[in-house]
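Amino Acid Chain and Its Fold in Token Form
===========================================
Structure side: the spatial fold of the chain, written down as a series of whole-number tokens.
Position: the record begins directly beneath this header, with no further notes in between.
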Amino acid sequence: MRALILEKLHQPLAFEQTIVPVPSPDDELVALHAAALNHRDVYIQQGLYAGIQTPMILGSDGAGVCDGQEVVICPGLYWGNDPRVQSKDFQVLGMPTNGTFADFVCVPRENLHPKPAHLDWAAAAALPLAGLTAWRLLFTRCQLQKGERVLITGIGGGVALLGMQLAIAAGAEVWVTSGTNEKIIRAAGLGAAGGANYREAGWDKTLKEKAKGFDVVMDAAGGDGFAALAGLCNPGARIGVYGGSLGKINSLSPQIVFWKQISILGSSMGTNEEFAAMLAFVARYRIVPVVDTSYELPDGNAAMERLRRGDQFGKIVLQIAKMK
């Protein structure tokens, strides 16, 4: 089979022929039609991830065919029995288990779910990791309710965009931030109520004047700007954290957290049950993930470079089999 293989850190992926994997008794072999990239893939390539093993086929997101059925893959493997937190055996497909940047992949049977019928292969491949992450953060951790006001930071990435789409479908009013006005305008075209450019001075004050405060905040940045998010919160608000691209939070005042009764909630990935609930919600409201660009599998390094630059609005997809 064809595959993109990370042979060494800090090197381009090698497009090679390799053997088709043989599934264990608890696994199934999926013939992939499409895969999607995540920042995780770039971090692994750059050596910025724990437990890296090489050579390895990267890729956590994928959709394809198994035993004649169209399926999407839940990328969180071996969550365990406690829905509150993953087990010590938990891992994400694509490291240390070979992932989806290939013609075939083996995954546990329980991680295969029917593909929503309204999605094409590219959109289906764009859904799993981002959709699961956004779903757990919004509905399990932050307990989002209809009519609440939501702020999603860094719009343009896969998790942020799917979080916006899920929250809007659930009846929330969604606002966004971005470092570019173009992405805010594009988010508004998808239903966002408005937004603010965090590169502009006083962006948080401007946003508070427009939106009047938030009940749920969805953030993957952290850093010094996190304190501004707390200042934008309504009493009883929940801040869901699913990443830390800007590093440590150094300037947050505890007084604003306890006086406003703000909850700060960490969230990562999710269970198979949450994945199934997310898929059912996506099917019910016919949500279509935003696909930024599609590349053929041999052009995987160009796809990785686009993701590394951060220019994308939506998910970057690899076409593996003929797309419908």
Q: What stands out?
A: The longest strand covers residues 27-36. The first helix runs from residue 39 to 45. The chain has ten helices and 18 strands.
